[in-house]
Specification:
Blueprint (H helix, E strand, L loop, with lengths): L21 H7 L2 E6 L28 E5 H7 L7 E3 L7 H9 L6 H4 L3 H8 L7 H25 L6 H4 L4 H21 L10 H15 L1
Antiparallel strand pairs: 1-2, 1-3
Protein name: DNA replication complex GINS protein PSF3
Keywords: Chromosome, DNA replication, Nucleus
Subcellular location: Chromosome; Nucleus
């Protein structure tokens, strides 16, 4: 029986998103604060409410502060042409990085950023002087939360885990579900409820043909 949707793994932790992944599509639409370094002709009507008034020629003035989806900010960003500069979202700035370094488990990641790791990894595309600190903070936050997530997934069999899962970002939720599936499969194997290994149709058909040839 075929499934209606086969989950495609996210590519957000790499250099580029995977646009066959629903998680990456949602993540790439999260807003990023930017500042225009040059006037943008004929875009004032589109950004009118966000650019604090467009010029008469419908251009977005230089120095306007906008919030653009990640995919558009990446497309417009160019170090040589300096079309726009990116401002770090608050949760990736030094203040929040200090909180994560103190105790990452106290933070409700899903509330402040449901794609915290993926979005943060994509920020490294913009060549910020804080990139090294951001990447180190992402890594240490993940390491600090990983053990608790996996311990909980292995020790919460048939229990209500909604309160715990509600605080996890989307990648962490996937890890938690993988841990619980592994535990459930192991429990089924111990009880002898695991599915039996059967020969494929190709092997069975080959045996039938072989027996037929022997009879002939």
């Amino acid at each position: 029986m075929s499934e209606a949707y086969f989950r495609v793994e996210s590519g957000a932790l790499g250099p580029e998103e995977n646009f066959l992944s629903l998680d990456d599509i949602l993540m790439s639409h999260e807003k990023l604060p930017v500042r225009t370094e040059t006037a943008m002709p004929r875009l004032g009507a589109f950004f009118l409410e966000r650019s604090a008034g467009a010029e008469t020629d419908n251009a977005v003035p230089q120095g306007s502060k906008l919030e653009l989806p990640l995919w558009l900010a990446k497309g417009l960003f160019d170090n040589k042409r300096r079309i726009l500069s990116v401002e770090l979202p608050k949760i990736y700035q030094e203040g929040w990085r200090t909180v994560f370094s103190a105790d990452p488990n106290v933070v409700d990641l899903h509330k402040i950023g449901p794609h915290f790791y993926g979005f943060g990894s994509q920020l490294l595309h913009f060549d910020s002087p804080e990139n090294a600190d951001i990447s180190q903070s992402l890594l240490q936050t993940f390491i600090g939360r990983f053990r608790r997530i996996m311990d909980s997934s292995q020790n919460a069999y048939n229990e209500d885990t909604s309160a715990l899962v509600a605080r996890l970002d989307e990648m962490e939720r996937g890890l938690f579900q993988t841990g619980q599936k592994g535990l459930n499969d192991f429990q089924c194997w111990e009880k002898g409820q695991a599915s039996q290994i059967t020969a494929s149709n190709l092997v069975q058909n080959y045996k039938k043909r072989k027996f037929t040839d022997m009879e002939d």
